[in-house]
Amino acid sequence: MTRKANNGAKQDNKHAAGFLGRFIAYLVRHAQQAVGSLGDLWRNPFTSVMTILVLGISLTLPATLHVFVKNANAISQQWKSASEITLFLKLSVSESNAQQFVQRISLYPEVASVEYISATQALDDFKHNSGFGQALDYLSANPLPATVLVTPTNRASQVEAATELLQKLQSEREVEQGKLDLEWLTRLQAMATLIENVVIGIAVLLCSSIVLIIGNTIRLAILNEREAIAVMKLVGATDSFIQRPFLYSGAWYGILGGMVAVLCVAGLVEYFSMSLIELTDLYQSDYTLIGLSSSDMLSLIGFAILLGLSGSYISVRKHIRAIEPTAE
Amino acid sequence: MIRFNQVNKTYPGGFVALNNVNFSLAAGEMAFLTGHSGAGKSTLLKLMSLMEKPTSGTVHINGVDLSKVTYKQIPFIRRGIGMIFQNHNLLMDRTVFDNVALPLVIEGFSHKETKKRVEAALEKVHLSSKLRCFPHMLSGGEQQRVGIARALVNKPPILLADEPTGNLDPKLSLEIIKLFEEFNDLGVAVLIATHDLGLIARLKYRTLTLKQGAMINDGLMEGLQGVHDDA
């Protein structure tokens, strides 16, 4: 029996709201869902705190190693200009012979400049810098050789050319021993590169585990909401509508975990620089550790958000589709 | 509005739930769907709401052939059908207002429009005073009415009800049916699945009767006697 078969109901659907109104409603909805999912984290404090800490701590290790590499680079940066050759003269070489030797090598085409440190001056410097001070006065003779610092020209400071120059200088009869500073510099750089590779390797492993951990946390959250999701699907919710709060949860985990990592790294740098101060005091140097810059912090948090989002995205793709409403 | 054309549904394992079912429900029509448990009522509703696909035959809802609907289109088809369940399917951790507002929120209505429509829908089911309550604070009949308000708030052209009076006493059942009649008056096509034959007997509506998956009767309630005798 057909009652009034007008379709007033259908017509009404069309003038629900204008485009602008819908767009604003969409933004408001996003904001509400973002705040709502933060509330969901708050309601399960134990799970949330655990996940956030895991994320934060996992990110702390690669971030700290990054700080280490950054400092190593800063140190080698300071020494970049120091590709100089140190020549220790034989103890038997007299002061005047040494002066002549300096004159002679400064005429070499490969040599840019030469600095002469006499044995007495070397002893004075050592007294001043080492902290042994008075004790050295008890020495009967100066055990230090005179030293010549040779700075090669730019062309000759390449590793091979510098090594050649070193050999040439070593063959001079006044020279006891020669040392090329470039060697330890290249070693330091190689070590920094090695550590950087290790950092990348560890970071990749830790980041994958973060993605998996967040994916699992979100999976549990989805399964908890299974019934509500089925109901939402029944009344016509799209997957993207249903998944949005879970994606926001992932992003919140990222933000909070990233903040934890920033705090941990800052704490570690503080801790390290305290022991570094003791060390640098011994060496009369005033090197201070470089911590995370504010752009470093932002990119760390941004990276954590990216990890959180991808973890929840993987979970959401797989599990929300699997939940289907049943008639019961 | 709803059209079944030679629809068969066989579940894995060989159970035949629907056997060559043909019927159609016009816009603004109201009908009952009846039969024993296991006669295929639920299967019929599942096919209409895209929870399952027929083994063969075609189902049309609001002029759309459901066999051509992709996974991504399913939500949009479901928005054209208001569904009411025996167990209400309400979200227990949300207020009555939020439950009724859900379809509008999903469709992206503005807050103002949502508020207006939810209040109107709740007024129609006489629950305006329970706006801020949670579902567990309501009686069974009230929860069912919240479900009805939610099914109708986005003004779908079709209303499907699966045992809407299942847990209610006769007086409340009649109230619920009266509500359906009111919406039917506004032009909504209504299909009510029920085994409450007493209720159907009192109301002279078209009745579709299923028996072992086959549509054995399509018309007024006279044919019901046969079903009753079998019971």
TrEMBL record, chain A:
Role this protein plays: Part of the ABC transporter FtsEX involved in cellular division.
Protein name (database record): Cell division protein FtsX
Membrane-spanning ranges: 198-222, 251-277, 297-316
Subcellular location: Cell inner membrane
Keywords, alphabetical: Cell cycle, Cell division, Cell inner membrane, Cell membrane, Membrane, Transmembrane, Transmembrane helix
Domain of life: Bacteria
Main location: membrane
A single cellular component GO annotation: cell division site
GO biological process, one term: cell division
Family, per entry: Belongs to the ABC-4 integral membrane protein family. FtsX subfamily.
KW Cell division (keyword) present: yes
Subunit structure comment from the entry: Forms a membrane-associated complex with FtsE.
Ranges where the ABC3 transporter permease C-terminal domain occurs: 202-319
Signal peptide: none
Organism expressing this protein natively: Thalassotalea marina
InterPro entries in alphabetical order: ABC3_permease_C (IPR003838), FtsX (IPR004513), FtsX_ECD (IPR040690), FtsX_proteobact-type (IPR047590)
UniProt domain FtsX extracellular: residue ranges: 84-170
Topology term for the membrane: Multi-pass membrane protein
UniProtKB/TrEMBL annotation, chain B:
Domain ABC transporter: 2-231
InterPro entries: AAA+_ATPase, ABC_transporter-like_ATP-bd, ABC_transporter-like_CS, ABC_transpr_LolD-like, Cell_div_FtsE, P-loop_NTPase
Gene3D superfamilies to which the protein is assigned, alphabetical: P-loop containing nucleotide triphosphate hydrolases
Membrane association type: Peripheral membrane protein
GO biological-process terms attached to the record: cell division
Assembly and binders: Homodimer. Forms a membrane-associated complex with FtsX.
Protein task: Part of the ABC transporter FtsEX involved in cellular division. Important for assembly or stability of the septal ring.
PANTHER family: CELL DIVISION ATP-BINDING PROTEIN FTSE, IMPORT ATP-BINDING PROTEIN
Protein name: Cell division ATP-binding protein FtsE
